[in-house]
Amino acid sequence: MRAAVSLRGVLSALLSLLLFHEATASVTVRKTGRAPTGYEVEFRYINATARRVLIGGGLQPFTDQFHTTGTLHRTNGRFDPHDYQPGDFWVSNPWPQLPEDYVWPYEMRRSADREDEWVYTAPFPSGTYTYAFLPDCDYAPNCTVDTGKLVVDPDVPPFMNVPGDQLSSNFVVPFDAKFQASPELNTNFDYTLPAPHPCRNRGRVLHVNYTSPGSLHPAKDVHDFVIYLPPGYGRSKTKKEYPLLYLSHGANGNGADWENLGRISHIMDNLIRLGHIPPTVVVAPTFYNLDASHQDGKKFLYGNRSHTVPVPAARLVRENYEKYLFPFVESNYDVCRNSSCRAFAGLSMGGVLTYEMLVNATDRFDYFGLFAPATLPPYLSDKDLARNPALKKKGIFVAYGLYDFVFQWARDLQDALDGLGIKHVTRVTPFGSHAWNAFQDQVWFFGKTVLWKPLPLNLRGRR
Ligand SMILES: *[C@@H]1O[C@H](CO)[C@@H](O)[C@H](O)[C@H]1NC(C)=O
Ligand SMILES: *[C@@H]1O[C@H](CO)[C@@H](O)[C@H](O)[C@H]1NC(C)=O
Ligand SMILES: *[C@@H]1O[C@H](CO)[C@@H](O)[C@H](O)[C@H]1NC(C)=O
Ligand SMILES: *[C@@H]1O[C@H](CO)[C@@H](O)[C@H](O)[C@H]1NC(C)=O
Ligand SMILES: *[C@@H]1O[C@H](CO)[C@@H](O)[C@H](O)[C@H]1NC(C)=O
Ligand SMILES: *[C@@H]1O[C@H](CO)[C@@H](O)[C@H](O)[C@H]1NC(C)=O
Predict the structure, then answer these.
(1) 20 to 30 Å CA-CA from 261: which of 171, 182, 206, 269?
(2) Intervals of CATH 2.60.40.10 along the chain
(3) Nearest alpha carbon to residue 440 among 282, 226, 265, 314
(4) CA 405 from chain center: how many Å?
(5) 288 CA to centre of ligand 1 in angstroms
(6) Quick one: signal sequence residues (predicted)?
(7) What pLDDT digit, counting tens, does each position of 398-423 carry?
(8) pTM for the full predicted model
(9) DSSP-assigned letter for residue 451
(10) Residues with beta carbon inside 6 Å of ligand 3?
(11) Which candidate, 418, 87, 142, places its Cα nearest to that of 306?
(12) Given 3.30.470.20, 3.40.50.1820, 1.10.490.160, 3.40.50.720, which CATH number is that of 198-449?
């Protein structure tokens, strides 16, 4: 009897411990089978002192092709997700300016169940969404970590090496063909969902610190990268040499972006599972903080708008990677040792770095992916090509969104390549702004059409 009572005591103590550690926030994605999208997302967040809570951290209102332009201060439908219609998508709005830019659809309400809890529920279409809670914030894009009005979901921590490196969490919503079909736009992002059969189909993604003299972050002389190891990596008795893709972030980002904002591990798992590429190792390095001479040395925090770090010159980044990163990766992982199974790709300023690799590390890589490249002239000349004829033998992919502010720059780069007869594959993302839904689409098509395909590329029959 006594024993039973004390057991109950222990259980209730355990229970109160559990209650004490209860979740303070949550995001639930639910299949509803109902219009408008077939799915709904419920956010919950406990905060007793806030007078108002918005959701931001990357979440954007929706728009459609009839209400979007590619100008810097673009026209944008700014639809509430409750009004979703097939063919709607979201674009980033880096320079809010119009009065309607200040109307924000993602406002939480006080929960009916408990006074200190905030709730927001809305239908969402297919895609990866990043978010953070914004207590006492009156305009989402202005509420950043340095204003103290951005709280990262404590129960869905971002993928990051050191706390503070990433300032938003994410969730993924599946596609439902019954409610979301818009064949002309391909807004089905199911390739960003976790692959089925985890043991067989899912790789691993982790942070690695490596010695890089001069580095300022995450520690003195220590730099970091993210590595994706495909399913089966390390399990074979005979040493395999996996093809190796380097994937760069853009301005104001870091290596964890590709996983935290882009879910690259899911995309790779699905490219491999569906037979578009063989199992491939991906390394996503960080081009900031390589050393103090490259920029002002301050640690960049995603979402800290008052702190824009100058982008280090692509030439310096290439030299640094050649000295420290590439040798480290190639001597510590089962990766291939020749250009035919090495690729470099990147988005935006990472596309500029990819261009630098194409021009000045031509022999190291055979495949290059320039996603929304922010490249500016001067481009290659006939003289450069005459000195480096191998440029004509590479697998090159240039992609950009129809509504991306780098649209014209990327087109100019294509003109320069075309003018020299350097063949390349194009992808114009039909819903694309300078944002992660577009970069996901671009890396997906890079994998489907260019990566590790026999050179010269012949795309007929590949679709
Ligand atoms: C609650 O909101 C306040 C602003 O009123 C903010 O400073 C605080 O960090 C929030 N607390 C939690 C637990 O998110
Ligand atoms: C947002 O920040 C900008 C730049 O600091 C400022 O001009 C604008 O008034 C702010 N908007 C709101 C609604 O707070
Ligand atoms: C890398 O180094 C930083 C700073 O010492 C540390 O906080 C972090 O946990 C390390 N990460 C890994 C994966 O070892
Ligand atoms: C954001 O940037 C400002 C300006 O550089 C800096 O003073 C502040 O410490 C930064 N905030 C964080 C949280 O790093
Ligand atoms: C490059 O390395 C891969 C993987 O080890 C190998 O299969 C291929 O034959 C090599 N190619 C050349 C040209 O050496
Ligand atoms: C390539 O190297 C040359 C010589 O160092 C340099 O002038 C050029 O800026 C580099 N990058 C590109 C993209 O041409």
Answers:
(1) 182
(2) 3-188
(3) 265
(4) 18
(5) 30
(6) 1-25
(7) 999 999 999 999 999 999 999 999 99
(8) 0.90
(9) T
(10) 161-162, 207, 209, 218-219, 222, 224
(11) 142
(12) 3.40.50.1820
